[in-house]
Please model this.
Amino acid sequence: MNGGEPLEGDLEITGVPVVTLEVSSTASDGAFFVYLEDVAPDGRVTYLTEGLLRALHRKEGVGDPGRAVLGPSHSFMRRDGEPLEPRKPAELRIGMQATSVLLRKGHRIRVAVAGHDASSFARVPAEGGLEIEVLRSAAFPSRVELPVKERGR
Model:
């Protein structure tokens, strides 16, 4: 996939991007890894930043009030866990690592989604088959919020 439409002008992203995934899964939990990428006109892809969230920990607004949080706040505590209902839509808001980057006119922005990062994390769920669908419709609008500052067009 090439990403969105080509940028009409240079675009500066500075801050914490947030990806909202509307998903359906065959499992009650899963790991969701999101990668923000710059796609050059020649097709070259450059990694910009990333975020991750286990679906079980998607409940928001339960973070530690004594800790500064950039992006969505999740407690990651067992008592706040919300298993997915298999094959039922659910929303996951995933804060990415802060970044500051200038994207050039004609480039595209792409969000890549993965369900596993074998080099860093154990698979969730650990065994068995798993089907994940990222929903993209008016009723279930998966999207990315970018902290941007437009540059000269």
